Amino acid sequence: MLKSNFKIPENFRIKIPGDKSVSHRSVLFSSLSEGVSEITGFLEAEDPINTMKSFSKLGVDFQKKGIGNYIVNSPGKFHLKSPKEELDFGNGGTGIRLSAGLLSGLDKINTILTGDASLKKRPMKRIIEPLKLMEAQIDSINSDDKVPLKITGKKLKPISYFSKLSSAQVKSCLMLGAISSDVSLEYEEEELSRDHTENMLKFLGGKILFEKPTKFKIEPPFIFNGAKFKVPGDISSAAFFIVFGLLAEKGNLLIENVGLNPARTGILKILREMGGKIIEENIQEECGEIIGDLRIFPSELKKIEITKDLIPSIIDEIPILAIAGLFSKNGFEIRNAEDLRAKESDRIHSMVKNLKSIGVEVKEHQDGYEFEEVKSITSNLIESFMDHRIAMSFLVLKNLTKCELSIDDDTWIDTSFPDFKEIVSKLNS
C-alpha cells in the first residue's frame, strides 16, 4: 500500500477561503435585492469575481471594504439594465448557469453570456431545455448547446419539472428564473443535490414548501430587501487539507469555519467510513448554513463502496477522494458519477490519464473508474486539463509522497483557491 511521509505540526490551524457556491449566490441574491446588502467571507477567486463583474455591468454597485467584505447597492431586480457588452464568466460554470436562469426571467434584459476556452466546451443543454419549457428566449449562438448564450429576458411561465440529473446548477438556474419572473416553480430531482439556493431563499423570507427532501415548490412574491450575507468556508476546498491531515504520518490539523451543509458533507461521511478520524467542533448556524471547525487526525484508510445517493454531495471532491484512494487498503472505485465528464474538464478522463501516467493500473468506465491497491507511483508530468481541482489533487499527491510530479499549468488553481499553494508551503515548513 502506498505510504505518505508527510508530517503536520501538532494543532496546525488553517482558514480556508469562502465557499464558492455560496459566494456566487450572494452576488446573485444581493443583486436581486433592492437596497444595500453586505457580503462577508466572499471568495476572492476568479470565478466568483467574474460573476460580480458581470452584475456590475447590469447596474449593481459593489464596493470592497476589506478582504472578502463588500457593500452592495442594487436597484432591485425590476430596475437592472441590459449591459453594453458581453458578460464574461471566465471559467465559471456555476456563475454562467445560474445567471442564465436569473437573466432569462428579467423582462427587457438583453445580453450575451460568454466565457473562456474551457467554459465554451461545457454543456449548456441541461439548462437551455428546461428554461425553454418556461418559455425563456435563450439560445446557443453557435447552435451547439454551448457558450456563448444569447438571452432575451421576458416573463417566464410557471412549470413543474422533474430532473433526472441531480444538479444544483440546473435546480438553481430554474429557481432563479422563477424568482426573477415572480412565478411559481415545482421541482423534483432523483437525488438531493446541494441546497444553497433553497437556504438563501428561505434566509431572505421567500416561500418554499417541501413535499419531500427532493421535491419542493416555490411561490411568489419574491421581493427581497438588502441583507447581510455571511459566506462560510468552502468544504470543497477544505477537502484537500482533510486528505492531507488523514494521510499525514503524524500531527493533527484544525480547519476553521467550514460550511457543513448536510447536502455537502458526503465527503466527511465517506472518509469516515474509509477509516478517517474527523471531529466536528464549534457548530453554529449563519444565514441558513451550518458551519463549524474540523479537527483531522492521521488515519489508516480502506476501500469502501460509495453509494449512488452520495454522488451529488461529493461531485466536486471526487478527484481528491481518488488521491486518498491511492493510500487506501484494497484501492478505490467510483461509479454513478457520469456528471464528472461535464465539469471544468472531463474529470473521469483527466484522472484516468494522469493516474496511468504515474503507473497506476486504472480501469475507466463511462460513469467512473477504479483501481486496485497501489504499491508505488512513478514521476511524470501531470496534465491539469485547465481544471483547478485536477491541479490541486495532484499537488497534494506530490507533497504527500515527495514524488517528482510536475504540473503543466497550476494557474487554474486561482479560479477557486488563490492561496492554496501558500498554505501547502506552510504545512511543509
Largest sheet composition: 4 strands, mixed
Shape: globular
If you consult CATH, what is the topology of the largest domain? UDP-n-acetylglucosamine1-carboxyvinyl-transferase, Chain
**What number is the mean pLDDT?**
95
Distance N to C terminus: 26 Å
CATH domain class name of the largest domain: Alpha Beta
- Helix share bin: 25-40%
Radius of gyration: 21 Å
- Please name the fourth-level CATH homologous superfamily of the largest domain: Enolpyruvate transferase domain
Computed structural class: alpha/beta
- The CATH architecture of the largest domain is Alpha-beta prism
Share of β-strand residues: 15-25%
Could you give the topology of this structure?
Blueprint: E1 12-15, H1 20-32, E2 35-40, H2 46-56, E3 61-66, E4 69-74, E5 87-88, H3 93-104, E6 110-114, H4 125-133, E7 137-140, E8 149-152, E9 159-163, H5 168-181, E10 185-189, H6 196-203, E11 207-212, E12 215-219, E13 228-230, H7 235-247, E14 253-259, H8 266-273, E15 277-286, E16 289-297, H9 311-314, H10 318-326, E17 332-334, H11 347-357, E18 362-365, E19 368-371, E20 380-382, H12 388-401, E21 405-407, H13 420-428
Parallel strand pairs: 1-14, 2-13, 5-6, 9-10, 20-21
Antiparallel strand pairs: 2-4, 3-4, 6-8, 7-8, 10-12, 11-12, 14-16, 15-16, 17-19, 18-19
